[in-house]
Amino acid sequence: MIDGPVEWRITQGLTEYPGALRWMEARVAQIADGKATECVWLLEHPPIFTAGTSAKAQDLLTPRFPVYDTGRGGQYTYHGPGQRVAYVMLDLRRTAGDVRRFVGLLEQWVIATLADFNVQAERRDGRVGLWIPARTGSLSENKIAAIGIRVRRWVSYHGISINVSPDLSHFDGIVPCGIRDHGVTSLEALGLTTTMADLDVALRRAFEEVFQQPTKLTVLDGE
Fold first, then answer.
1. Stretch (H or E) spanning 57
2. Dihedral through CA 120, CA 126, CA 127, CA 129, nearest 10?
3. Fewer beta carbons within 10 Å, N or C terminal of the chain?
4. How confident is the model over 111-163, as pLDDT tens digits?
5. What is the pLDDT of residues 12-21, one digit of tens each?
6. Burial class (CB in 10 A: 0-12, 13-18, 19+), 68
7. C-alpha span between 167 and 80 (Å, rounded)
């Protein structure tokens, strides 16, 4: 691994999933070989479903969008416009020491980011991701952020996604993360008019605070 600030990479527009996966895998190999710095990559995908290593066929209800098998942990999830995806390529030997602690840091990163918008996101035992407590008159909690990672040679990839203003009806094609008793939400559905750029600023600030690592910004027009 090359010492130095974490590359903070933002791609504008929509990035196709297969190309993003190839790029991540190549960067992970470079980090592991000491040929590249660590990297966090922020992007949006066109509408897709992705299947983690624990995905169950019955949880794919309506394959209305392309479906991609991934090597990350977890089950089915949706990605699409209006959702910020953050792919996190970090050396766990320096960052966390073990996978469990690393996942905890990812959760804390999301919690700290959303707190900037006065949104209280919470962990739940037995449920992956971050949740918004049930509102008055409702028994259901709603998921606002998903987490799914893979580790190769002690370098992480895949990462997190936060719902800013996606079309929430697109989640109807799957059982998100295999959880049938709760729904999904977004900052927009919570009544916030947050832009993606606003969220990106909060993500970067919270990352440097939680992971105690400086970042160096790279903004790209498209991939």
1. none
2. 60
3. C
4. 999 999 999 999 988 777 899 988 744 557 899 999 999 999 999 999 999 99
5. 999 999 999 9
6. middle
7. 8
Q: Is 177 among the residues known to form the active site?
A: yes
The pTM is what?
0.93
The residues that bridge with 146 in the sheet, in sequence order, are: 161
**102 DSSP assignment:** H
Residue 54 contacts by C-beta under 8 Å, 6 or more apart in sequence? 73, 74, 75, 178
**How far is 111 from 38, CA to CA, in rounded Å?**
22
Ordered alpha helix ranges (H), the chain: 17-32, 92-95, 99-115, 196-211
For the chain, where are the E strands, in sequence order? Answer: 6-14, 39-44, 48-51, 67-69, 76-79, 83-89, 122-124, 127-132, 142-152, 155-163, 183-184, 215-220
From 42, 110, 177, 184, the catalytic residue: 177
